[in-house]
Design brief:
This protein is of the alpha+beta class. Helix content is 28%, strand content 32%. This is GNAT family N-acetyltransferase.
Length: 199
């Protein structure tokens, strides 16, 4: 059973070097700057910079929702904004959500901040919310992100071929997921074929 009250009362999360705090309008300038960075747009496949009004509205309305959670990643040492991380697209019937992360830029990439934040969010999703499955999508050229996701338990389960056209080239997108511990030990129900046996 999904404990969605923990989404509505989204708690801050702590990692060895960062604090994950519920995102909101006060992070607007940093979020807009990161979303406009050409390399961040390439990594996320965003062909256009986000609409500023829509982004502002999202930051103003994200708090208190019981179907998603989004945190700002803040470095503990100097309180600087490092990026944002989210659980989105709650599927209550199937106890699953989608994981998303975007760092502020390449200046903080490759230092393990995303891995730390991801581990905290996955533990929250599987351990506190009671999710069965968390999935994500990542472009195949983003090897650093794929390595980070693998470290925190995500496994590749499929490929969307030629999912992104960027600067005249096609790129595949990987679908990855992590399941609650022991999930694959459960016995699946046999499929109903609809064919009746003669008695």
């Amino acid at each position: 059973m999904i404990r969605s009250e923990f989404l509505a009362k989204q708690p801050p999360l702590k990692t060895p070097r960062t604090q994950l705090v519920p995102i909101g309008p006060r992070f607007g300038p940093q979020v807009r700057r990161a979303a406009s960075d050409p390399e961040i747009r390439r990594l996320t496949g965003a062909h256009r910079t986000p609409d500023q009004d829509q982004l502002r509205q999202r930051l103003e309305t994200v708090a208190g929702r019981d179907d998603q959670a989004e945190w700002a990643i803040v470095r503990g040492q100097d309180a600087s904004y490092l990026g944002r991380v989210a659980l989105d697209d709650l599927d209550r019937a199937n106890e699953s959500m989608t994981y998303k992360i975007s760092l502020r830029g390449t200046d903080v990439a490759g230092q393990g901040y995303g891995t730390e934040a991801g581990e905290a969010v996955i533990n929250f999703g599987l351990g506190i919310l009671g999710l069965h499955r968390i999935q994500l999508a990542v472009y195949a050229f983003n090897e650093r992100a794929i390595k980070s996701f693998s470290k925190i338990g995500f496994e590749t389960e499929g490929v969307l071929r030629h999912a992104l056209l960027w600067d005249g080239r096609w790129y595949d997108q990987l679908i990855m997921s992590v399941l609650t511990p022991g999930a694959l030990d459960q016995v699946a129900e046999p499929k109903q074929t609809g064919v009746q046996q003669d008695g």
